[in-house]
Fold:
Amino acid sequence: MTGHADSPREALERLSTLLGSEMNVSPRDAVRMIVSSVDLLVQIQIVDEIRRVTSIARLGKKLQDGEPVLTTLWRYDEASTKELPAWKLVEETEKLS
Structure:
């Protein structure tokens, strides 16, 4: 699936809203459906006029306090050059609430 958002976190929020509004799914059930069916979120942005993968995040399969947990695994290194792109391993975890 392709969605448009400024971050993996925002993509999850938009998907949850879409399920609620278009398919009449409760927010709680939308979160459960997303967590059970989505493993990774890959964000692509245009950097230096080239499409680049700028973030790869893993969606946890267990809820924490009723909320999904998103772990950013890799992030595009903005200090890298157009000729030699680089990514950083970050593994930052955040609870979506």
About this structure: Residues 8-95 form one domain.
